[in-house]
């Protein structure tokens, strides 16, 4: 049974046009019944001067996946989902390829929702 109120439509780029998400190349690559997965390229758009992915870019990927997942769970006519807080640990430097994030189920709070980016 799916947790999503709205399903992602592959190729739907209108909502991200001319945004940071589009600029750095984040893509939603998979949507399961209770998770979504996305990627971000490790290239000149996301590198810091040391030629590894900038920690802030990794946080943008995490925030994007969390906001998209939250948006899929609510009535978009009544609610808008944006980040409230994020904390990140950057344990492994990335120099090439795609950074992948997976967003799983939420835990409910009284009027806010939160959850872990990785499953």
Textual characterization of the structure:
The chain has helices at 20-24, 55-72, and strands at residues 27-31, 36-41, 98-103, 107-108, 113-114. The protein is an alpha+beta fold and 119 residues long. The protein has a three-stranded antiparallel β-sheet. It has a two-stranded antiparallel ribbon with strand order 4-5. The two termini are 18 Å apart. 19% of the residues are buried. Residues 113-119 have low confidence and may be disordered.
What are the defining features of this structure?
about 120 residues, alpha+beta, Thiol Ester Dehydrase, Chain A, 3-stranded antiparallel β-sheet, two-stranded antiparallel ribbon, about 20% helix, elongated, disordered C terminus
Give the topology:
Elements: H1 20-24, E1 27-31, E2 36-41, H2 55-72, E3 98-103, E4 107-108, E5 113-114
Antiparallel strand pairs: 1-2, 2-3, 4-5
Question: Treating each run of at least 4 consecutive H or I residues as one helix, how many helices?
Answer: 2
- What is the count of β-strands? 5
Overall residue-averaged pLDDT value:
84
Q: Beta-strand percentage?
A: 15-25%
How would you spell out the order of helices and strands? HEEHEEE
CATH fold description: Thiol Ester Dehydrase, Chain A
CATH architecture: Roll
**Helix content range of the residues, please?**
10-25%
Name the overall outline: elongated
Q: At the fourth CATH level, what is the homologous superfamily? A: Hotdog Thioesterase
Rg from Cα: 14 Å
How many domains, in number, for the residues? 1
What topology, given as strand order, has the largest sheet? Answer: 1-2-3
pLDDT under 50 segments (min length 5)? 113-119
Question: Any idea of the CATH class?
Answer: Alpha Beta
Largest sheet: 3 strands, antiparallel
The SS-based structural class is alpha+beta
Whole-Å distance between the termini? 18 Å
């Amino acid at each position: 049974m799916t947790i999503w109120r709205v399903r992602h439509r592959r190729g739907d780029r209108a909502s991200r046009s001319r945004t940071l998400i589009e600029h750095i190349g984040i893509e939603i690559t998979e949507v399961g019944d209770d998770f979504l997965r996305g990627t971000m390229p490790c290239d000149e758009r996301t590198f810091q001067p040391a030629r590894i992915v900038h920690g802030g870019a990794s946080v943008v990927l995490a925030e994007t996946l969390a906001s998209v997942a939250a948006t899929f769970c609510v009535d978009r006519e009544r609610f808008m989902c944006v980040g409230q807080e994020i904390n990140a640990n950057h344990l492994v430097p990335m120099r090439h390829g795609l950074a992948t994030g997976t967003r799983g189920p939420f835990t409910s709070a009284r009027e806010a929702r939160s959850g872990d980016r990785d499953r």
